[in-house]
Amino acid sequence: MIDGKNGKGAVHLFLLCVVAGCSGEPTARVSGRVTVGGEPLAAGQIAFERDGRLLAGSIDAQGGYELRNGNSRDLPPGEYTVLLSPPPPELVADPQTTEMTPASLPDQSRFPDRYRRPETSGIVRTIPPGESTIDIDFSLP
Predict the structure, then answer these.
(1) 27 C-beta neighbours (distance < 10 Å), count
(2) What tens digit of pLDDT does each residue of 27-47 get?
(3) Are 118 and 83 contacting, i.e. CB atoms less than 8 angstroms apart?
(4) Spatial distance between the Cα atoms of 77 and 93, rounded to a whole number of angstroms
(5) What ranges do the domains of the chain cover?
(6) pTM for this structure?
(7) What is the CATH number of domain 22-138?
(8) Burial 54-82 (b: 16+ CB within 10 A, else e)
(9) Burial, 33: exposed, middle or buried (Cβ in 10 Å; 0-12, 13-18, 19+)?
């Protein structure tokens, strides 16, 4: 039987688990900086792939990124292949058809094709539990 005092403690513990996450599985959060040949990459997408699962993030103007698992920053730790792709093209509406078409394609020269596929990337990183910074330099061909 739970008395009033111990019952409150159990409720508080339950609420703490719900808020903080008590699944027992460790989680990770990753951010970092992306460079190509030592220079910051000012746009694009970075992804960490394992068994078909992608953790992805957009690269900002300073080369920074923050990985996400869908809408969550909580990531499963483990070993991943790192992928790099250009930003999506900017779309504009065609005034005659109202269809969206690409305004221009991003410069592809800083996004070597080999980094777009797990089979050819060759870059592997381990995401440890907890918060970490993983900087990645992609080399040009």
Answers:
(1) 17
(2) 999 999 999 888 999 999 999
(3) yes
(4) 41
(5) 22-138
(6) 0.73
(7) 2.60.40.10
(8) bbbbebbeebbbebbbeeebebebbebbb
(9) middle
